[in-house]
Automatic annotation (TrEMBL):
Ranges in a coiled coil: none
All residue ranges annotated as the Amidase domain in the record: 24-121
Protein name: Amidase
Start and end residues of each stretch annotated as Disordered: 109-132
Length: 132
């Protein structure tokens, strides 16, 4: 599986750190389901930074393999549309990231999104993308 081209789309909730389209199986129980994956999971050919630019800078090589959980989603026919924001190193409960900012809580603008999976949570609510 060759990584698709990285592209930018309108992201009103600031959910994504990296946007692309990647699909594995052509038919399966998840065909037609669109997912976004937290920047904690490896996807072959793309960097994983754990919400930390220093980690990205010092570990800049793209992932050599896709995490088994993500690969299972792809094999089932899901479309992965990018990697989402997260708390730096998944080390907080509020969803804010000093380096990359805070995704917009679409359900309650002006409030923090909460959780280290903040980008996945607001992406699901704001963009109609299932959180992965």
């Amino acid at each position: 599986m060759v990584p698709a081209a990285v592209h930018e789309k309108h992201d009103p909730t600031d959910s994504f750190i990296l946007q692309f389209e990647l699909t594995g199986g052509l038919h399966g129980p998840l065909t037609g389901v669109t997912l976004a994956v937290k920047d904690l999971f490896d996807i072959k050919g793309y960097p994983t930074a754990f919400g930390n630019p220093k980690w990205l800078e010092t570990h800049a090589e793209p992932a050599a393999a896709t995490a088994p959980a993500v690969q299972a989603l792809l094999d089932a026919g899901a479309l992965i549309v990018g990697k989402t924001h997260m708390d730096e190193l998944a080390y907080s409960l509020n969803g804010e990231n000093f380096h990359y900012g805070t995704p917009v809580n679409a359900a309650a603008p002006g409030r923090i999104p909460g959780g280290s999976s903040s980008g996945s949570a607001v992406g699901q609510r704001g963009e109609g993308v299932a959180a992965g």
